[in-house]
Design a protein that fits this description.
about 240 residues; Immunoglobulin-like; 4-stranded antiparallel beta sheet
Length: about 240
């Protein structure tokens, strides 16, 4: 004899468990048990039989989606039929939700709640709306806490380079040395102007993500929930 986990039933006080296929002991469908304590000084004989009637099945519902897969061009809508079936006396409302749709698309139901009667079905349409605009991931660079300090560092470094030029330049200077000094001064001016522009603009760069739908194949999950009962199914959507 085995339990529900398929492990052999073991009990120190159990002597035997057996069915009598001959029917000589009474009921061929009964399982007979002998057990006892104190070195068999006390004994027990019992029989276990199946329930005369099976327990009532638990109310439940089924969930399905068709078609199983669909391919659309970006900008088109993909529609799937979601069907719920009432089982074993089920008569409660079921809420629907979807997830996993492509980025840049929206998923919704014509009816987000259905109440299938026992033995009957109820259906609704799930629509995934896509956009034909180009798709790109969002990129955003904004001014951080140290952006101002970085901007001020540029002219400081330029001034430092300029001072080094002055200290190392020989007295009297040739024409070429004077040209070098002019280049250094011009570099300092450009660095300071660039720094001012960085500070004025906030050192920020923003590129809003396009509103298009991500191309490729995704798995969209449909979940139906009613109280403690929950069932899920999936469909495949390819956006070209």
């Amino acid at each position: 004899m085995k339990d529900s986990t398929s492990a052999v039933v073991v009990n120190g006080s159990l002597w035997d468990m057996a069915f009598d296929a001959t029917g000589q002991t009474g009921n061929p469908n009964a399982m007979y048990i002998t057990a006892g304590l104190n070195s068999e000084m006390h004994g027990l004989f019992a029989a276990i039989t199946a329930n005369a009637t099976a327990p009532a099945p638990t109310p439940d519902f089924s969930l399905s989606a068709t078609p199983a897969s669909q391919t659309v061009s970006a900008g088109q809508n993909a529609q799937f039929t979601i069907t719920l079936g009432g089982l074993n006396g089920f008569n409660s409302a079921v809420s629907l939700s979807c997830s996993g749709q492509p980025a840049g698309s929206t998923c919704g139901f014509m009816q987000a709640s259905l109440s299938p009667a026992s033995g009957a079905t109820a259906s609704t349409t799930m629509t995934i709306m896509t956009s034909s605009n180009p798709y790109m991931s969002a990129v955003a660079m904004t001014k951080g806490p140290g952006a101002g300090a970085y901007a001020m560092f540029v002219p400081i470094l330029a001034l430092l380079v300029f001072v080094i030029f002055i200290l190392r330049a020989p007295r009297g200077g040739s024409v070429s040395q004077k040209k070098t000094m002019r280049y250094a001064l011009a570099s300092v001016g450009i660095a300071i102007a660039s720094s001012c522009l960085l500070v004025a603009s906030g050192c920020s760069y923003n590129r809003s993500a396009a509103t298009g739908t991500q191309r490729g194949t995704t798995t969209v999950m449909i979940t139906a929930t009613s109280g403690s009962l929950s069932h899920s199914t999936s469909v495949s959507l390819t956006v070209q």
